[in-house]
Amino acid sequence: MIKAILIFNNHGKPRLSKFYQHINEDTQQQIIRETFHLVSKRDENVCNFLEGGLLIGGSDNRLIYRHYATLYFVFCVDSSESELGILDLIQVFVETLDKCFENVCELDLIFHVDKVHNILAEMVMGGMVLETNMNEIVTQIDAQNKLEKSEAGLAGAPARAVSAVKNMNLPEIPRNINIGDISIKVPNLPSFK
Amino acid sequence: MPNHSASIQLCVQKLRILIEDSDQNLKYLGLLAMSKILKTHPKSVQSHKDLILQCLDDKDESIRLRALDLLYGMVSKKNLMEIVKKLMTHVDKAEGTTYRDELLTKIIDICSQSNYQYITNFEWYISILVELTRLEGTRHGHLIAAQMLDVAIRVKAIRSFAVSQMSALLDSAHLVASSTQRNGICEVLYAAAWICGEFSEHLQEPHHTLEAMLRPKVTTLPGHIQAVYVQNVVKLYASILQQKEQATDAEAAQAVTQLMVDRLPQFVQSADLEVQERASCILQLVKHVQKLQAKDVPVAEEVSALFAGELNPVAPKAQKKVPVPEGLDLDAWINEPLSDSESEDEKPRAIFHDEEQRQARHRPPEVDEEELARRREARKQEQANNPFYIKSSPSPQKRYQDVPGVEHIPVVQIDLSVPLKVPGLPMSDQYVKLEEERRHRQKLEKDKRRKKRKDKERKGRRHRSSLATESDEDIAPAQRVDIVTEEMPENALPSDEDDKDPNDPYRALDIDLDKPLADSEKLPVQKHRNAETSKSPEKEDVPAVEKKSKKPKRKEKKHKDKEREKEKKKDKEKKGEDLDFWLSTTPPPATAPIPVPSTDELGLDAVPAPREECEGPRGAGPEEEDAEEPDQERKPSKHKKKKHKREKEERPKDRKKSRQRPPGPEEAAGEPVQNGALEEEPLPPVSSYVLLAENSHVRMTYDVQGSLQRDSQVTVSIILENLSGSFLKSMELNVLDSLNTKMARPEGASVHDGVPVPFQLPPGVSNEAQFMFTVQSIVMAQKLKGTLSFIAKDDEGATHEKLDFRLHFSCTSYLVTTPCYSDAFAKLLESGDLSISSIKVDGISMSFQNLLAKICFHHHFSVVERVDSCASMYSRSIQGHHVCLLVKKGESSVSVDGKCSDSTLLGNVLEEMKATLAQC
């Protein structure tokens, strides 16, 4: 079972944390700190498995982590999980993130926190791995996004109307329309690209 | 279970390939799998010992730990010394305490497994333990201590060596005792003191050791150790006394007594109750002895009678095994129960204890001899390695001694090829050498013997003899040690319960001596009552004027003042503002001032040219000044007069906050940015002021700013520049209000009246006027038509002029730069009630740094965090909408994702931003 998924950056700032068993907030923070200390002092060319992380459940647990650019992805699992399987899962997760947010960056995890959790929920549920096929995950996420957009359509209508007016091809409209003596001045709107 | 040895063999071979792989992950997994096989098929894993030892040198800690786990099953009599030696070198090299502790426990585990099965030379083991005491910062002092005690007690032959080592350890206690933390290495002193006291007859220089144990430094040790010290000092004393009296050296005996009387009081003063009690008791005893000695009464016999007899370890289950005496039936009633209650008693008894079970436990006392013999036979195998049942010294369990089949258990017979006394602290390495030599000798002898035999049966089983050379059993222990059994009650009932896990090394350590003395061992720390920590800053910071007042009412103010002081300090660091300015202020602002960056902190290159001129007129009441713009003091004095005048004019009209400039990018990025240093890159001077209208007389540029303090109000700052040679006066600004946006006019004025500009403009001079507008909805951009009317006066006369303009209120102008910390930012986004929108602009060549600066400046955002070419930004509208942005720069494009509490506002802001970015 996966006990927890932690993502933090090179400075130990947590970017995402998901615990699959109940742990109170303070302990969670402590776990993140401890995990960061364990992981951050390891070289690049050592193995991706780490014993320790005493806080979550004791000696049975293992930390399986990967380091990408500025982020550490750490999965805390018990002995029933396959080490290589989890490593692969991390890879899938990161690739999926990259597909969903082009040019993915650690700030995406903060800004699109809802989407990241959605992706994670497609992959891992209740500590169990659900899906490892990236295409399948991306399809689900796309469907979700579509749904969100269609719901946002009503609320976003006025804004779209305004921008549509602004983006009208203004130069084609005559500057001054003379109807009798009424002169209506068409505002000299700045031309948008 | 069928024998899968072939497949296991194959499996182990494949695992070897994994372990040999250069990929660290595979190596780790190989070792992990190996350790699983080790549990069931230790033999097949043992053949890959070389590989596992190699892994011990790996740079990766995870792999080393895995290899350590495997080592447990790798050791044999033959290689134990070698492996432990290797581990000891690792202990020296290891940097992290956790890994070092792990090594330490592993060394002890490996050595003590199966009742010290693999240890052939206990002197070597004692020296290893002593070497381990030199580890700093370990948390396993108690483990080492327990091992020392166990070995010294159970291996009789080693006692004299152990005692010499322990006395050396006591002598150098200052090295060990430096860290007095719980379970620290100082715990070994506990064992050392006990061993030296208990086996004091083996001591070379008991007097020397006694002095070492009575040093004043000892009182710094934890209580439970001191207690043991005190107790064992007396044991030592008793043996010295006996020695001296036998030598009829009364003077020396009295000298020792005097030493005791002199030194014991330091323990009597101990804060630890146990130490105190023991010390005062013993002090009285020694004083009594002193009296007797003065009368020349021999006392040694009586004193040593206190400690007569030998303490043997008691098996943890000994109590349970006391046989029930003949004729005692615990279930029988002592008095017949009252007949009334009997029927009621029946029920609960049936619930709580099963009668059948009870009977099963209660063994029938008479078992026939055959049955006994059969049981004995069955047990013999398990007992082979268990010293609890092998008794070589006189003991109540004699009957087991003559049981056949225990010959291979080591029996007292000290091989003197190894010197028992090694001067100074031992070096375990020497034993390795000695051991090698010894083994070599043994082997030669054996080979000789074998040769003879071989000659006899050459044709026969050749292979067998070659195999035999490799086997462990060939190595005879250097020291044949008798392993003393733990003491058992007379006629103890042997049971199998003890043998559940013979591999558990800690079972042997269940000695009660070890028990910590609960809380009493903690030395109470002397503590003053907590002084008020908060005193100084408050008292010192509050100026003398404040101190005088004693009214409770002032308290609140004091607090506020303090706050302001703090703020002041912050500011002071930056600008060294004079104190008077702050202290002279009238009532402090009611609301804690929002940390708005003051102009002084702005990046100076971002300050536009016209600003210099408009600085003066940007008037504000003193309140606002003290809260936010203390640097206004610095204004050129020529402006000052003017300013004051204007202030008077403006104050009744609008007590607005002084307008905040959008912070320069450096400032905005300053604190919240945590990642990625911002590269310094000079920014082109920019201005947020845009042209409003222009004619031959006057040019108007304007900027719209909102402030968080007043929701739904914005300030329009208009710079009027006189372009003509005439004097401009009676300027009046009038705007056609819309439903949504209205200009704030002086009280009593109608909506058609203009608002007078509070200054006149001589030729070539420019000045700034500010006008307030009330906005209802800020989600859309607005446009207002307006007119500036003025009188241009020159030598030829005055003319009345008019200038029409259109005020454009962009959505951006409703945003106010608000710093935001990344945690708060993350929380905000997590809350999930923000609508999302995004734009993308192509063809951008500007650097990301400048791009951010531009967004910050023109759109009033602040950078929350920046990572490489990605940044999160935040701003807030005057009506409290949160606007979050994620700006990402690609090759030549920039994408901006926005989240905002109002989707329309977000859409408009992003549109405006798109326009700005398009110009980049």
Automatic annotation (TrEMBL), chain A:
GO annotation, cellular component aspect: AP-3 adaptor complex; cytoplasmic vesicle membrane; Golgi apparatus
Residue span, AP complex mu/sigma subunit domain: 1-147
InterPro entries, per the entry: AP_complex_ssu, AP_mu_sigma_su, APS3, Clathrin_sm-chain_CS, Longin-like_dom_sf
Question: What's a BP term from Gene Ontology annotated to this protein?
Answer: intracellular protein transport
Give the taxonomic lineage as stored in the record.
Eukaryota, Metazoa, Chordata, Craniata, Vertebrata
Which family does the entry's similarity section mention?
Answer: Belongs to the adaptor complexes small subunit family.
Write down the CDD domains for this protein, in alphabetical order. Answer: AP3_sigma
Q: How does it sit in the membrane?
A: Peripheral membrane protein
Q: What is this protein called?
A: AP-3 complex subunit sigma-1 isoform X5
Q: Which UniProt keywords apply?
A: Cytoplasmic vesicle, Golgi apparatus, Membrane, Protein transport, Transport
Q: Where in the cell is it found?
A: Cytoplasmic vesicle membrane; Golgi apparatus
Q: What is its main location?
A: membrane
On the tree of life, the source organism's domain of life is Eukaryota
Role this protein plays = Part of the AP-3 complex, an adaptor-related complex which is not clathrin-associated. The complex is associated with the Golgi region as well as more peripheral structures. It facilitates the budding of vesicles from the Golgi membrane and may be directly involved in trafficking to lysosomes. In concert with the BLOC-1 complex, AP-3 is required to target cargos into vesicles assembled at cell bodies for delivery into neurites and nerve terminals.
TrEMBL record, chain B:
Q: Could you name the domain of life of the organism this protein comes from?
A: Eukaryota
**Record carries keyword Repeat:** yes
What SUPFAM superfamilies does the record tag this protein with? ARM repeat
Q: Where is the composition biased (Acidic residues)?
A: 484-501, 622-631
Keyword terms, alphabetized? Acetylation, Coiled coil, Cytoplasm, Golgi apparatus, Membrane, Phosphoprotein, Protein transport, Repeat, Transport
Instruction: Provide a GO CC annotation, any one.
Output: axon cytoplasm
Mind telling me which Pfam families this protein's record contains?
A: Adaptin_N, AP3D1, Mu_AP3
Q: Where in the cell is it found?
A: Cytoplasm; Golgi apparatus membrane
Q: Where is the composition biased (Basic and acidic residues)?
A: 354-382, 433-447, 502-547, 562-578
Q: Where does the record place the AP-3 complex subunit delta domain? A: 367-514
Where do the segments described as Disordered lie?
354-401, 433-682
Q: Does the keyword Disulfide bond apply?
A: no
Alphabetized Gene3D superfamilies for the sequence: Leucine-rich Repeat Variant, Longin domain
UniProt-listed SMART domains: BLVR
UniProt-listed GO biological process terms:
anterograde synaptic vesicle transport; Golgi to vacuole transport; neurotransmitter receptor transport, postsynaptic endosome to lysosome; protein targeting to vacuole; synaptic vesicle budding from endosome; synaptic vesicle membrane organization
The biased composition feature labelled Pro residues covers 586-596
What kind of membrane protein is this, topologically?
A: Peripheral membrane protein
Q: Compositionally biased, Basic residues: which spans?
A: 448-465, 548-561, 636-646
Q: Which family does it belong to?
A: Belongs to the adaptor complexes large subunit family.
Q: What does this protein do?
A: Part of the AP-3 complex, an adaptor-related complex which is not clathrin-associated. The complex is associated with the Golgi region as well as more peripheral structures. It facilitates the budding of vesicles from the Golgi membrane and may be directly involved in trafficking to lysosomes. Involved in process of CD8+ T-cell and NK cell degranulation. In concert with the BLOC-1 complex, AP-3 is required to target cargos into vesicles assembled at cell bodies for delivery into neurites and nerve terminals.
Protein's name in the database: AP-3 complex subunit delta-1
Organism field:
Carlito syrichta (Philippine tarsier)
